Please model this.
Amino acid sequence: MTVSREIRLKSRPEGLPSHENFELASVTLGAPGAGEVLVRNLWMSVDPYMRGRMYDRASYVPPFQLGEVLQGGALGEVVESNAEGFAKGDLVSSFFGWREAFIAPAAALEKLPRHPGVPDQAFLGVLGMPGLTAYAGLLEIGQPKAGETVFVSGAAGAVGSVVAQIAKIKGCTVVATAGTDAKCDWLRSVGVDHAINYKSCGNLLDAVRTAVPKGIDVYFDNVGGEHLEVAIEVAKPFARFAECGMIANYNDTQPSPGPRNIIQVVGKSLRIRGFIVSEFAALRPQFTKDMMGWIAEGKLKWEETVMHGVDKAPDAFMGLFSGGNTGKMLVKL
Ligand SMILES: NC(=O)c1ccc[n+]([C@@H]2O[C@H](COP(=O)([O-])OP(=O)(O)OC[C@H]3O[C@@H](n4cnc5c(N)ncnc54)[C@H](OP(=O)(O)O)[C@@H]3O)[C@@H](O)[C@H]2O)c1
Model:
């Protein structure tokens, strides 16, 4: 018998999530049945999109149900296998979320290789979903060319930090925003040309304009709100916008008005394109090859912020909305 603690959604947040929206529960697991595997999680991911699943509304993924475990990406180790192809000690990726252990059919698990020099948890960040989001959104939608200027918001986070570095690898000038001076220092340390602390810079539009007076060719949006308005304002004609996320609005209790300068989309012939990473699943082999190469060459670096214990998952999740993380926010079990 294995006892597993898990985090369930107790109530739907109104505005910013708080502890009262989550509950800790325990379940007892038996032995895996035919074709099943018992997995103990080592690392769990907390991600901004999970906030969207806490609303009871139709979207590209169904809403979380009250009383159920929060689903999300996790990495674990096989403890007991009753399925062909899986053995004790195998590293597996799953989507069963915020729980210490679980039994699942083998078909719901993906066996991951272990790479020397790359920690397992990189498969939840730089080599996982956030990394692919950055890679696909920037290269397929942004289509940056050497010599162009790329603006990325939320740049010290899991997605943004990869976007900024791939843009540098592609020979672009990068202007990036983040919420603390320490995050901006880290961005400069990985080659970002202009790192702006959007919380302390005063007028964000002035700060971006001063940094890149000729304007931007690509905007990779993780934030929305004022950042999107600024990007439209400084966009060159025919600039490409990869609309990845709008975290500034995820806790709004009323829909917020769109960019006040949206009319410029017409005059500047802007191409503004939203996307969900699953659209680009087919790029994964190329993504993994490129990323492993850039990591080996020392061109791609990453940070992670780690909280410990399944009971800390709500704190880790809520920390995303106050900038508590540099790089990927993770929970270690
Ligand atoms: N389209 C897709 O398929 C897809 C996939 C993955 C992620 N995303 C989106 O990509 C974005 C980044 O995700 P991530 O996993 O990499 O998270 P993350 O950037 O690692 O963490 C969130 C960060 O957002 C910043 N932030 C929070 N509230 C903000 C606000 N009001 N204004 C400006 N910045 C704010 C904080 O950093 P500061 O200290 O800089 O404020 C925080 O650290 C999110 O919008 C997410 O929803 C989209």
